[in-house]
Amino acid sequence: MARLRRYLTDTVLPFSSHYGALFRRHHIDPARLRTPEDLSQIPFTTKLDFAPNEDKSDPVRDFVLIPDRAILSKRLSTIGRALLHGRQAVADGFEREYRPLLMTSTTGRSAEPVPFLYTAHDIENLKLGGTRVMEVCGSTREMRMINMFPFAPHLAFWITHYAGTEFGVFVVSTGGGKVLGTEGNLRLSKKIKPDVLIGMPTFLYHVLTEAVRDGLELPSLKKIVLGGEKAPTGIRRKLRALAAQLGAPKVDVLRTYGFTEAKLAWAECPFDEDAGSAGYHVHPDLALLEIVDPATGAPRGEGEPGEIVFTPLNARGSVVLRYRTGDCIDGGLFHEPCPFCGRIVPRLVGEISRRSDVRELRIDKLKGTLVDFNHLEHVLDNVEHVGTWQVELRKRHDDPLECDELILHVEKTDEFDPTRLAALLSDRFVRELEIHPNRVEFHSVEELRNKQGVGAQLKEQRVVDHRPGAPSPASPASSPQGKAVSGNTL
Ligand SMILES: [Zn+2]
């Protein structure tokens, strides 16, 4: 809490126009933030705070720390650093601390991507956070790594890049499917014989499936590190099975969790499959994490599930306080030492799912039903005979007044009878989600990849909503493709 008080007083409140005004409006005195309970005095920040104002001004800018020259020069004279090191050195120090140099942005379902700025100071934090991800995953400097995250202004790509240079390990960034294509990624894998593959689960699944098909061998492979989207148990199991087919029988499949607003990511400790994951190791010197009740915002206790709330403790550039991620974790935050590595940093334990993936379906004409599509991923990724899949929502006969239809598109991975598989999937849907798909359609893996936009888009589309007025798909780049797909789906 002392770190937070100092950070707010010296860095955030004087230079953030959003939080300066917010603290004044709510009469919050940072000196009085003594215990974790006191945090609730600070109102949450949510994605809605980034939405453009009616007066067309851009609120995202209000979250950037912009130093006030008068305050800085006053500090200068009190510290006397100017006398010791010369004015230029001090001016350079401020430049490093406050001048934005790098930007990543969100790819969420929100209409507009939200940009987050990094200064040289933030890039140091990114390197530090990235290095810790390497360490937690059990990497060594002798390893050879391939970064298959899409080349884009996104956290996943850049933290992997900086983690590699800072940790001092050989990393080739392919740029993902959009830049080199599946072909190029396979060619590099063959040449480099990586120890570690890093990327999005759906894309890595696709690349490894192709590698198996081409008869490639990757015997050095030891770790698959996943980020950028959720990776339920099922897809991790499938990735391990593919690695075994490529001649790498013992591979750790590890997840990372991060988001644009954090400018950081956290990694899962290698774990024993039977014992289950020990969770993501977080860094209490760089950020404060809270778990709150997603409905009321009330704090949750040790090891209680809820929504993840983030506050940085050392960020410059864009800064958000008590940021509600919209991500819910079904375990919670644990402070006891990690059973696997013994680290004493707090751990986020459990499956993380997006709160916003709950959608209303009109199954009959009378009423809507809320369906949690997070759950859907956990259900489908654990079914045998099923490779990749997509759930499509549409209106019956494309008539806006009709009921909603749910169509499940599936890649069948073996000779299993399609009618039996369709029945099995339907049963599972009813058991887990209390709805049944209107149809189950089987497709070749190529057809499904086109539907999902694997390699062509920044995020694979596993749930597409083709109902009129439905929220737009994952990223702006994906909208035209999403529409094109809808035209030839049925
Ligand atoms: Zn650990």
Say which CATH homologous superfamily of the largest domain is assigned. ANL, N-terminal domain
Spatially, the strands of the biggest sheet line up as: 4-3-5-6-7-8-9-14-13
- Tally of strands: 21
CATH class of the largest domain: Alpha Beta
Helix content: 25-40%
Count of individual helical segments: 14
Low-confidence stretches: 472-490
Please state the structural category: alpha/beta
Distance between the termini: 57 Å
Under CATH, the topology of the largest domain can be stated as: Rossmann fold
Give the amount of beta strand, in percent: 15-25%
What is the correct CATH architecture of the largest domain?
3-Layer(aba) Sandwich
Count of spatially separate domains = 2
Rg measurement, Å? 24 Å
Named once each, the bound ligands are: zinc ion
Tell me, briefly, the overall form: globular
Round the mean pLDDT to the nearest integer and report it. Answer: 87
Tell me about the biggest sheet?
9 strands, mixed
Summarize the topology:
Elements: H1 2-15, H2 17-25, H3 69-79, H4 81-85, H5 87-98, E1 100-105, E2 115-119, H6 120-136, E3 144-147, H7 155-167, E4 170-173, H8 176-192, E5 196-199, H9 201-213, E6 223-226, H10 233-245, E7 252-259, E8 264-268, E9 280-281, E10 287-292, E11 306-312, E12 323-329, E13 332-334, E14 347-349, E15 352-354, E16 358-362, E17 368-372, H11 373-380, E18 386-395, E19 404-412, H12 418-433, E20 439-443, H13 445-452, E21 463-465, H14 478-487
Parallel strand pairs: 3-4, 3-5, 5-6, 6-7, 18-21, 19-20
Antiparallel strand pairs: 1-2, 7-8, 8-9, 9-14, 10-11, 11-12, 12-15, 13-14, 16-17, 18-19
The chain binds zinc ion (ZN).
Residues 269, 278, 281, 338, 340-341, 343 line the site of zinc ion.
